[in-house]
Amino acid sequence: MLVVTDSYSLAVIPGSNAYNLARKIAGKLNAPLLDVHRKTFPDGENYIRIDYEKITVSPDYNIVVNTLYPRQNDSFIETLLLLNAAYPEASKATIAVIPYIAYSRQDKLFLRGESISLEVILSCLRSAGADILITVDVHNPIILKRYFKGISKNILISDLLVKASLKYLDNPLVLAPDKGALNRARYAALKLGLEFDYLVKQRDRITGEVSLAPKELSIRERDIVIIDDIISTGGTIALAAKKCLENGARKVVVAATHSLLVGNALEKIRKAGVNKLITTNSIPIEETDFIEVIDLCDVIINELKRVIHG
Ligand code: R5P
Q1: Is-contact 273 241, C-beta < 8 A?
Q2: In whole angstroms, how far apart are CA 139 and each of 113, 120, 144, 176, 202?
Q3: Which numbered atom of ligand 1 lies nearest the CA of 239?
Q4: Ligand 1 center from residue 183 Cα (angstroms)
Q5: The ligand 1 atom nearest the CA atom of 105
Q6: Residues involved in catalysis
Q7: pLDDT, tens digit, for every residue of 45-88?
């Protein structure tokens, strides 16, 4: 039986990297979570089949939920296969919910002869069948609009991350580790009535030594929340935290949307003196005494309702 939610019928299709998130979204929308049959052929190619037998008529909206880390290449192919299998079954639209989009940092040509990886990812998602793409805190939202030729929505989350840090910090300074993350810091700080700044990297032309200092404000005796989109190797955050503490900051908490935490990233961040990491489940992650995880389910559902109801 097809469950009808707020006058539209929906079906949720889980990708392997986001089964728990998809299950929660389906549960809260009172929509069926469809089974996906998977197999790998002897030569390594993958096969998927969405089990539409569970529902008798095609849904208005198919919602494919997956995230592109870990195993970004496999998970990308799986997402394309799911979208391609889903779109003929939707009478109104197929929605791709992909909280973390891999390859998002290669969003322009830095050197001649490179590929614009993000353009490839976004155009493939669209041609596989995604009419609407919902993501979270993509590295560069302007580029998302440029390369996804359907409806795209980027959920801003830095305010929720910083809000969660307030219980650990006293009147914190919201700090971006570089100019690229400044919009995230500004957005959160303005929403929460806090001060914000970003770190500027400078290299001594004689000694070659790199220094990192806030552009405008002093961090001495301040509690700091460093905000960024991605933690990959942890290098950026560890350096920023270390410099803050060396320059007299009292306490540093890190708020980052996508925690890839490659290799010993976590250890690096802890060693740099960070008190807490606040992140989201855009990528599957376990909560610990050091890591607090913000669940994206509700913000994604709100966005889904907005795109469905216009
Ligand atoms: C860079 O532009 C991003 O916003 C992150 O700061 C960066 O990807 C973090 O990488 P890592 O953790 O390896 O320093």
Answers
A1: yes
A2: 22, 15, 9, 13, 23
A3: 14
A4: 15
A5: 2
A6: 201
A7: 999 999 999 888 889 999 999 999 999 999 999 999 999 999 99
